[in-house]
Amino acid sequence: MGTNAEIVELTRAFNEMLERLEDERRDSAHRSIETQEGERRRVAQELHDEIGQTLTAIVLQLDRLVCQAPLELKAELETTRESARGSLEDARRIAQWLRPETLEDLGLSDAPAGTVRPCREAFGNPC
Description:
By secondary structure, this protein is mainly α. The protein has one domain (2-99). The protein has 4 helices and no strands.
């Protein structure tokens, strides 16, 4: 009889240990995701605030220079301006990829549904 009680107690202790390990694993994964999302948010914000604003200022300066430049420089300045605009759009696209608006608006748990819903509305629900 003593052996069965020991086995039951050992089983209970083992199951409690497994539950604690699972809780710790879940908490660790959650913290890791939060850390990654925080870093993505920081990088996206920096792209938007620093690089985006700098490129916007460059585009505006080039707009002004194109208007004032002699004819022989206008084409080159326009090409440079369009290149800066392209870089600005690239920075915006990367920032949105890092931190989609639906993620900002809805949060991590609801963002997938918020992203899929407009697709279903646009293309119909196949189910």
